[in-house]
Write a structure and sequence with these properties.
225 residues; alpha/beta; 2 domains; 5-stranded parallel beta sheet
Length: 225
């Protein structure tokens, strides 16, 4: 992370409650977002991380407890699970690879339970001509999410599944249908079935099939601990 000194002076440095590590950088990013600053991701950067230098004397059990402790503290501090919101799961990356293998460049994609939009940002970087959209059941994920991707909050209890604000950005998809509709189910902690946007594969097919263009794909992506 490259951060202006003036920003650190305003929001404060790393929270020592996360010491010796895990989630302290995520916490810093959320605080920067709350302060109203813009954060940029350099997708084509190369970072060499010599892992475990800070934790070389800790056992795997101790590291797991530390991760769980800091994960819980982060959720309580910010009111949402920024790990679930930010992480790009393997199934998402596999989907991007399959789209590339299909030779697609100009396509539309909607991700349901998109978190903070990090995967959608990755798709837009890899496929600049793609039209990508996201929706989440958690307002804080959208509030602190990627700003250059059209995303909105949806109500899981709404059977009509109103896409809300992102519809106004779909000038090239007037039928409100997409080449790819991804349903992302993930929860590191309480179990996927307890997450607000949880829906079974069968329910997803019933609820979201109408959003898929003829010849398009509805994909159910899941990953947990």
């Amino acid at each position: 992370m490259l951060i202006r000194r003036t920003v650190l002076d305003e929001i404060g440095v790393l929270d020592e409650a996360f010491s010796p590590g895990y989630y302290e950088d995520d916490d810093l990013s959320v605080r920067i977002s709350k302060a109203g600053y813009r954060q940029l991701v350099v997708h084509n950067s190369f970072i060499y991380h010599k892992g475990s230098e800070n934790f070389s004397r800790k056992t795997s059990g101790e590291l797991n407890l530390l991760m769980l402790r800091n994960h819980d503290y982060s959720k309580k501090k910010h009111g949402y699970d920024n790990l679930n919101a930010a992480i790009i799961i393997d199934a998402e990356l596999q989907t991007a690879g399959n789209i590339r293998a299909d030779g697609r460049k100009d396509f539309s994609l909607l991700e349901i339970n998109c978190g903070s939009g990090n995967f959608l940002s990755h798709v837009k970087f890899v496929f600049p001509a793609a039209r990508v959209f996201g929706t989440s059941a958690l307002p804080l994920e959208i509030e602190h999410g990627v700003k250059n991707i059209p995303m909105s909050v949806y109500d899981p209890a709404d059977d009509s599944f109103d896409l809300g604000a992102i519809i106004t950005d779909m000038s090239n998809d007037k039928q409100n249908q997409f080449d790819y509709v991804l349903v992302r189910i993930i929860d590191y902690g309480t179990g996927a079935k307890n997450s607000p946007g949880f829906i079974s594969p069968e329910e997803a097919k019933t609820k979201f099939a109408s959003l898929v263009k003829t010849g398009g794909k509805l994909l159910y992506l899941t990953e947990n601990e």
